[in-house]
Structures are given as C-alpha cells and as structure tokens.
Design brief:
- With 198 residues, this protein is of the alpha+beta class.
- The chain has two domains: 5-46; 58-179, Sandwich (Immunoglobulin-like), CATH 2.60.40.
- 28% of the residues lie in helices and 27% in strands.
- It is built from five helices and eight strands, in the order H-H-H-E-E-E-E-E-E-H-E-E-H.
- The protein has helices at 5-10, 17-24, 27-46, 159-162, 180-197, and strands at residues 58-66, 74-80, 95-99, 105-114, 116-125, 144-146, 164-166, 170-176.
- Strands 2, 3, 5, 6 and 7 form a five-stranded antiparallel beta sheet that branches. A three-stranded mixed beta sheet has the order 4-1-8, with no helix packed on it.
- 18% of the residues are buried.
Length: 198
C-alpha cells in the first residue's frame, strides 16, 4: 500500500469528513469571509485616487533638448500640469516656449514653476507652422520628444508615462528628439541588408 500525503493533510485536525465540511461551511466562517472581501473592496476604492499635496513654493526647470537633425525651424516646448490635452493640445499646456536650435540642441527654462507633477512634450517644428506634420498614414515627419524617455510604439505616450515631480528650487532634465522617418528608413535598410545576406 502506497502512502498518500493528500489524504493525511486534508483530515489533519478533524476526525472525519463531516466535521471538516461543518467547519468550512459554517455560517460564521462564511460571514467572516464576506466581511473580509467587502472591506478589501471598500479600502481599495478609497485609496485609488489620493491627491498629492505639494508645498506652496516655486522653482526653475531647465530643459536641455538633444538630437535635432538640423537647426532649421524651432523647438516647441510644451509643459503640461495634467493629462488634459497632453501632448497635442498646446492651448491646454501650462506654458509653451518657442526655442531656437543651435548645433543640434536647444535650451529652455521655465521660471516661477509651482511645485507639482508635470510632463513635457517637444516638437521640432522645421517648417514653423506650429503643428506636427505627418504623412497620410499619420506617421510624424518632424521630430518629437518627451520627458522621461517613455517606451511607446503607436501614438503618443500618456501623461503618467512621462510625468516628473518638480519639488526643488532648481531642476534640470534632458529630452531626446526622435524622428520616425529616420527610424523607419533604418529599419527598412536593416531588412534589406538581412534579405540580401540570405
């Protein structure tokens, strides 16, 4: 006869199957379980949206923007204090700056910035029309970048993916500009090279 550990452990502490069933199916155990589950739902709902409170102070945010493919046009730097309008609607931005590009980089500064949570979007507006130019498929033709260097493939990243805290008198961040057309050309060249080797 083989030893079966499952039969031993299921009845440990109980004399028979009926006693086990009475214990787990008793009204007290079910009531305790229901109270526990209700409390978990109640507390998870309350803790879901806690507002952050920041000191009433201001600071200076310096932004260094790298990776422009040319000095043509200007950099549009939009600072958002909420997800409302981020990143396309510059009218809903906390502040917009138009910055000159020199030797493939640009510098922007936001002064008297109240402490809080922010996200930054940058557009290399090469033709200076004030908006992102894209192909008929929606692929951007101009460079763009975001704070936090988020990972994304289709569409812009969310506010939360790019957000950062401003809670000091001075803060500096770096934003790298990315060009989809150049990325696509590199991918096509890589595919062509790989197919040529086969």
């Amino acid at each position: 006869m083989l030893f079966n550990p499952y039969k031993l452990t299921i009845y440990q502490g109980f004399h028979n199957r009926e006693e086990l069933k009475r214990y787990f199916c008793s009204t007290g155990s079910l009531l305790s379980l229901l109270i526990l589950i209700s409390a978990l739902f109640l507390f998870s709902g309350c803790a879901e949206k806690a507002e952050q409170v920041f000191p009433q102070a201001t600071g200076r945010l310096s932004v260094e923007i790298e990776g422009f493919r040319s000095d043509r046009g200007e950099a549009l730097v939009s600072l958002f204090s909420s997800q409302d309008g981020f990143p396309e609607d510059m009218e809903k931005a906390w502040q917009d700056l138009h910055v000159k590009i020199k030797e493939g980089r640009a510098l922007a500064a936001f002064t008297a910035l109240p402490y809080g949570t922010y996200a930054l979007g940058v557009l290399h507006d090469e033709d200076m029309n004030g908006q992102m130019d894209s192909s008929w498929l929606g692929q951007p033709r101009e460079g763009f970048g975001f704070s936090g260097r988020p990972e994304y493939n289709f569409g812009p990243p969310s506010f939360n993916d790019t957000a950062f805290l401003m809670v000091s008198k001075s803060r500096q961040i770096v934003v790298w500009v990315r060009y989809e057309t150049e990325r696509q050309n590199k991918q096509n060249k890589l595919r062509t090279d790989q197919n040529g080797k086969q």
